[in-house]
Amino acid sequence: MSVVVHRAAADMLHGAGQRYTNQRRRLVELLMRAGGPGSIPEILGAGRGLKQSSVYRNLAELERAGVVSRVVTDEEFGRWELSEALAGHHHHLVCSSCGRVEDAVMPSGFERSLDRTLDGLARGAGFAHLRHRLDLIGLCADCANDATA
Amino acid sequence: MSVVVHRAAADMLHGAGQRYTNQRRRLVELLMRAGGPGSIPEILGAGRGLKQSSVYRNLAELERAGVVSRVVTDEEFGRWELSEALAGHHHHLVCSSCGRVEDAVMPSGFERSLDRTLDGLARGAGFAHLRHRLDLIGLCADCANDATA
DNA sequence: CTTCCTGCAAAAGTTTTGCATTAAC
DNA sequence: GTTAATGCAAAACTTTTGCAGGAAG
Question: Is the full-model pTM beyond 0.90?
Answer without folding.
Answer: yes
